[in-house]
Write a structure and sequence with these properties.
Blueprint: H1 3-9, E1 34-39, H2 54-62, E2 80-82, H3 87-108, H4 118-145, E3 150-155, H5 162-171, E4 175-180, H6 200-207, E5 211-217, H7 224-232, E6 237-240, H8 242-250, H9 255-264, E7 269-275, H10 297-309, E8 313-320, H11 329-345
Parallel strand pairs: 1-2, 1-3, 3-8, 4-5, 4-7, 5-6, 7-8
Helix pairs in contact: 2-11, 3-4, 4-5, 9-10, 10-11
Length: 346
């Protein structure tokens, strides 16, 4: 069937078929404009776990979403397709997480990592595995981009999009990142891991000069090293701290005007990076490192829509750190954020 025939035969008002794809849609990869790459990875998770299960849980929750999007009613017709995370990468992820737990346990017990020790070997193995994951992400994103697809990445922990950002840097002379998160993720190294979820944007800025601006929104938990890093790189980093946002709103400023100010800091090409803990934790209580405060769901929607209406080009996105819960709530919220991101990219 052609794409047009698939759309004509599909009833967007019906309940999703058990065998349907992401959001209950019937599109195979060849007819989907938007490819979502799942990266079921959480090797360096440092508090709560479960992010590696996010792609599967969000896929399941996505079939409960009605397809008539409030802002972009026909966006689903572009076609969305969830790719596969291959078995060899699943095995690598499991081994890396097991090795990381050896390192983390030693550190939490107050022990230094001695050269040549079991912990040192485990640390080297984890760092090597993370590098391999980054390489796979870059190659997989390139595979789909080379076929004319728009690509979104679904983590996993927040270390996962580095390979995608590296691909952007090869294809765009200049781009910015709109980063929604409770944390800066600007640690040079965390617990010995060079590709930690806490280091994603340190690694990005240190290795990708094409990233002219990192705009962070909702940050409310950070260390002195990160604060100092931000102050030293004010030419490349703008931070809208959660407490400062709340103070301005409580004093009468308009959220839409604040969104316009945030977006005005970005260049023409923008990658959107969302850690679900950037939202109020009532929306994502099982995420790995929840922090009180954060954006409301519709505040995030407004901000993303302002990016779209500004005329800037959304070159890709990642959504990370959604951890499933027994009642399905976290996956439900994650699926709805993903639905909006797909519509914007489409």
């Amino acid at each position: 069937m052609t794409k047009e025939e698939i759309i004509a035969a599909f009833d967007p008002n019906a309940a999703a078929s058990p065998n349907a794809g992401l959001f209950g849609l019937p599109f195979p990869a060849e007819h989907a404009d938007i490819i979502i790459i799942p990266v079921a990875w959480e090797a360096t998770v440092s508090f709560g776990s479960g992010a590696a299960l996010a792609p599967a849980s969000i896929r399941e929750a996505s079939t409960q979403i009605d397809l008539y999007h409030h802002d972009f009613p026909d966006a689903w017709k572009r076609g969305y397709y969830l790719d596969d995370f291959p078995p060899d990468m699943v095995a690598l992820a499991n081994n890396a997480k097991a090795g990381a737990q050896i390192v983390i346990a030693s550190i939490q017990n107050g022990n230094a990592i001695a050269a040549g020790s079991k912990e040192a070997r485990a640390l080297d193995d984890v760092n090597a595995a993370c590098e391999r994951m980054n390489t796979w992400v870059k190659q997989r994103c390139a595979y789909w981009v080379n076929q004319g697809k728009r690509v979104g990445l679904l983590g996993g922990d927040h270390s996962t999009p580095l390979g995608y950002l590296q691909l952007h840097a090869e294809r765009h002379a200049d781009f910015g990142i709109l980063h929604i998160d409770a944390h800066h993720d600007l640690r040079a190294v965390y617990e010995g891991f060079t590709c930690s979820h806490a280091s994603i944007f340190y690694n990005t800025l240190a290795t990708l000069p094409n990233v002219s601006k990192l705009v962070q929104v909702g940050v409310r938990d950070y260390c002195l090293q990160e604060h100092t890093f931000v102050r030293r790189h004010r030419n490349r980093i703008d931070v809208f701290y959660d407490r400062d946002i709340r103070k301005r709103v409580y004093q009468g400023e308009n959220w839409h005007a604040l969104c316009s100010e945030i977006i005005s800091c970005l260049p023409g090409n923008v990658h959107v990076s969302i850690d679900i803990d950037g939202l109020d934790p009532k929306l994502c209580p099982h995420t790995g490192t929840p922090v009180p405060g954060g954006l409301e769901f519709e505040e995030l929607m407004c901000l993303l829509n302002e990016l779209k209406s500004s005329g800037r080009v959304m070159i890709g996105f990642d959504l990370c750190e959604v951890a499933p819960s027994a009642d399905g709530w976290d996956a439900n919220v994650g699926a709805r954020v993903l639905f909006h991101l797909c519509a914007l990219l489409a």
